[in-house]
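Troubleshooting: if your tokenizer reports a length mismatch, compare against these two reference records.
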Amino acid sequence: MSPNTCWLCKICREEENGISSKLSLEEVLQWSQSFEKLITSKYGPMIYKTYLKTEHSDENIEFWLACEDYKKITSQRKRISVARKLFTSYIEPQAPNEINIDSPARKAILRNIQEPTQSCFDEAQRIIYMHMERDSYPRFLESKFYQKLKHSLQTNDNNSMIN
């Protein structure tokens, strides 16, 4: 299948300048072993986010990834700024990308961001991880999206063996 006709290639080009040519069958097959393998692989989060957009729930992976970046912040000044941004984007009621967490977790974050620490979003991140692992990840593996991606790479692998 040529990159010009592959539906996933078009999505990937729009997302990240054509990562589909760098995506390996081995990596894609590993994603079905565990959610952890998907979310920690090189291209898994981007592909998974593209799938979640079709379910209108990409705020979950965006929040999870933003929390991973947040944990790496060493400057307290920057941590305060990013914590507020995360709160207004994902946590507060009616936030533009509001995530589905329970009220106690929401209230704990509100208390924690007064003096934000590296771990003040950990509970919300854990909840979102569990939502994705239990709900959207199994659907992702069964989806035409993932199945077509695997098939496309298997076909490319077989063609390259023949040539």
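Reference record two:
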Amino acid sequence: MSGAEPGGPAVITLEELDGMAEESPDSAYHSHGSSLEEEAAERMEDEEQERLLSYWQSVGRGHQVDVPRDMAEPIQQLTRNNSPQERQTIPFTLIQRKEKLGDLLYEKRQYGKAKWACIKMKEKQYEQSICLGFMKLMRYICEQNSSGLYLGITIPIVTIVHTNESQSEMTQSVTVAYYLPEVLQDQPPHPFDSDIIIEEWPSTIVYSRSFRGITNEDSIMREINLLAEILESPELCLQDTFIIAGYTNPAAANRHNEIWFLQRP
């Protein structure tokens, strides 16, 4: 939520002057007190924006990503609405849980047909792509859309990644995607950013394995190879396209992630 914008020069009408003359000292005191409270609240809001922006800029520098000042309001709005009660988890049907000695190896799930807001990125490093892509999606979520409304956060935010044929390295091209909340699935608001495209994804069966920490080219390839070894029939899945599902924002220190293998149609 943004703070109040400073207005132009104040214009006082004759009627207002008359009304001010008729005010009692007591009412004038309360009016002034209210004004001080509003100014204090506005200062606190501005300070919160600056603190959050400064934190994101510090994290961004670690990934060689510039976080511009116009991200202050989206960052603040997303932070305020990011409690567990505010987040909507993407619905799925659990088909199977594979465990070994009490440890969960992977889950087999089915995700239904749904609309997603997607943006393609191709930066030098994966971390740069997801940070810049996520910032663009944040602006869309935080009122920069045809409805003018805050859309609400859904988790996970997913990134489609691709590898070469031998699965030895990732390509630079990725797609960062945001699942539209249930109430917006029929009529998604149009993004102001022309780089963001609304796509309808078909129903898909995925094999999901959880992991924590940063996501970069090395950690993603390690998780791809690990899940490929665990699955009984990895050949049933796409061999060059995978999804990284992020349950915490890219600025978080110890992220909760999943690697998804996509079963062939």
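Descriptive notes for reference record two:
- The longest strand covers residues 237-246.
- The CA atoms of residues 98 and 232 lie 11 Å apart.
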